[in-house]
Amino acid sequence: MLKLVPRRHHHHRHLHHHNLPPIVFISRKLTHSLFEDDPPFSKTPKPQNQQTHNQNIKKPQKDPSNKKPQINFPLKSDLPFDFRYSYSEINPSVEPIGYRETPKFSPFGPGRLDRKWTGTTALLQKAVDMSGVEEQRNAILGEPLSEEEVSELVERYRHSDCSRQINLGKGGVTHNMIDDIHNHWKKAEAVRIKCLGVPTLDMDNVCFHLEDKSGGKIIYRQINILLLYRGRNYNPKNRPVIPLMLWKPYSPIYPKLIKNVADGLTFDETKEMRNRGLNSPPVMKLTRNGVYVNVIEKVREAFETEEVLRLDCAHVGMSDCKRIAVKLRDLVPCVPILYKDEQIIIWKRKNTM
């Protein structure tokens, strides 16, 4: 056990100083006056000639030729397609019925782009010669790769520890992703793209828009992993001008996906179908940000024996449930009749299978 030592009174310290030799007493006084704080944390005195030494050192002058070129707005981009926030997850044939913000709020910023923002797209100003665009793309891609060259690129970029990777989420092929792809192509011949979430329901659509919007070619596809090749004659200095979206635009208001009475059914029949779906075992269970490559095929097989199906989407999120229901409606095809508590109920529809 530790014992408390009683504090000495002030006059004892004076007595102790008087008992010390005079030289030791003077040295302790001097050190106490020079370093009032704890010595390890005390300030070190600066040398006297440091200021003159700094004045003699000349700072290197900046070369005016190395300055970044100033960008003149509005930007003009020769990309031969309309600019959208997402190319793979937005159907241009479906017209919105309203907007959450006025179309004048362009996500590219005020006065930064020469294209007019309509609320969903930035339209082209002039018609594009697609034959000339295709010739230019073929010139950049060059001769097709041999099997040895493809296997070498696949072995270099297909692994999960690849530094040239882009993650594709529920937004699908977004506009700013095209710029990320070209940034990777500066130092790499191919980019590894890992797809997760709702876009994996239709990987063919994702592959099409990646090749169409970037000008590259997919040389490897394994479940949800893609390798996008830039081409033999790709030159980073001649990359296209890609104006970036400064923020994500608000999604417009689209027609209601699930109607009170399904097309082809009465009110009572619709209610009965919903109850049958809720009480039936789920065909499959989907996880959040999962890989849904085989979902469409399994749903089609289940519709061969069942009329109403239930998909368990617990913990997926309501926004993703709606996106999944839209994909199922277009790809199976089927009729979503209910989503409740993250459960999707779909109906086979008469005379469709």
TrEMBL record:
Gene3D superfamilies the UniProt entry points to: YhbY-like (3.30.110.60)
Pfam families: CRS1_YhbY (PF01985)
UniProt keyword annotations, A-Z: mRNA processing, mRNA splicing, Repeat, Ribonucleoprotein, RNA-binding, Transit peptide
Lineage: Eukaryota, Viridiplantae, Streptophyta, Embryophyta, Tracheophyta
PANTHER family on file: CRS2-ASSOCIATED FACTOR 1, CHLOROPLASTIC, CRS2-ASSOCIATED FACTOR 2, MITOCHONDRIAL
One GO MF term: RNA binding
Composition-biased stretches (Polar residues): 45-58
GO terms of biological process kind: Group II intron splicing; mRNA processing
Organism: Mikania micrantha (bitter vine)
Region (Disordered): 36-73
Domain of life: Eukaryota
Keyword flag Ribonucleoprotein: yes
CRM domain segment(s): 143-241, 263-353
UniProt-listed InterPro entries: CAF1P_plant, RNA-binding_CRM, YhbY-like_sf
Entry GO CC: ribonucleoprotein complex
Annotated PROSITE patterns: CRM
Full protein name: CRM domain-containing protein
